Here is the input.
Amino acid sequence: MKTYLITGGAGFIGANFVKYLLATYPHLRIVVLDLLTYAGNLKTIENDLRSERCEFVRGDIGDRALADQLFRDHDFQYVVNFAAESHVDRSIDHPQLFLLTNILGTQNLLDAARRAWTKGTDYRGYPLWKDGVRFHQVSTDEVYGSLGAEGYFTETTPLDPRSPYSASKTSADLFVKAYAETYKMPVSITRCSNNYGPYHFPEKLIPLMITRVLEGKPLPVYGEGTNVRDWLYVEDHCKAIDAVLHRGKSGEIYNVGGHNEKQNIEIVELILQTIRRILTEQPAYRKVLKRREYDRAGNLRLDWMNRDLITFVQDRLGHDQRYAIDPSKITRELGWTPQTCFEDGIVKTIYWYLDNQEWVDDILSGDYRRES
Ligand SMILES: NC(=O)c1ccc[n+]([C@@H]2O[C@H](COP(=O)([O-])OP(=O)(O)OC[C@H]3O[C@@H](n4cnc5c(N)ncnc54)[C@H](O)[C@@H]3O)[C@@H](O)[C@H]2O)c1
Here is the structure.
């Protein structure tokens, strides 16, 4: 039975990947390594941890002794490194933490894997690697910088990170590539556009807006809301990582994108309209509304749920204007294409948040941290 080390598996994409693997492959084992920072939530994977095939270790990817111990205790075939500080705004306020986790943490994992997976050297002095192992780095399209109105990022677009977050992710990618060149380490990298879907921490655009609409609070939008991001449903991202891990060429980089370019303001408006439509058509969902105002007849009012909630706030420092991914390499070589269009994915996501308000409330109240 193959064993996967999934770092950051209590975070948004990592947890979705754990669920995806357990549901897709009956014969594998998973060890989740996660520090449970503010972004990690054990509740997200509590059902998965009931399986004998999934185990949780709380710890830092930068902890050398712990990483070595894990490799001694388990015969890992794959490492999939999701663990990261992932929020651009936080990187602007506290850049150094991003270097520690995203760069040094990744390098520590690479080293632990190298110590565990190599035995002896070939005649040129390169390490001899255990068969079938792979270190997979989950990276981001933000390493390419910002685009104007035209063009797409390909795997050969020059790296041009512009925020402390993207600079740290770029550095991590370069270390992964350096280990592939220097030690012939079997690695792969995926660079993905913005993900959305279930279990997304409510500080990020889509869950933040859903949460604030339900609270009836102002919806803060940076600048004029014209920044463009390419959105990918998280399950499609999980499938892409699976394809690269098992069928992608060692040493290669694959861009993963959703063909779903949207301006931030379009997304906010769509979320407003969709929630209002759902609450109008399916009154049972009105119980999740936190802003509760009634008309004279005693009916819950929804008329305040409109564009007036949008407030434009001072733009993020160095805000990248547009990201857009060209995923034709992964489509051509591995047959992967995104299966969920944005119009369906956003509705599924909104329903998930409406159905899982307890998960959100736990985060908003801070309870998720007290229990872990
Ligand atoms: N969310 C996106 O849209 C997106 C897009 C492209 C790439 N990515 C990349 O995908 C990965 C996962 O992103 P996400 O949105 O799920 O992030 P997230 O912030 O939701 O989760 C990160 C997880 O890593 C854990 N973690 C943080 N520091 C750690 C450390 N030192 N040791 C162990 N665990 C630690 C946290 O507790 C959390 O569970 C990241 O590497 C991110 O850069 C994310």
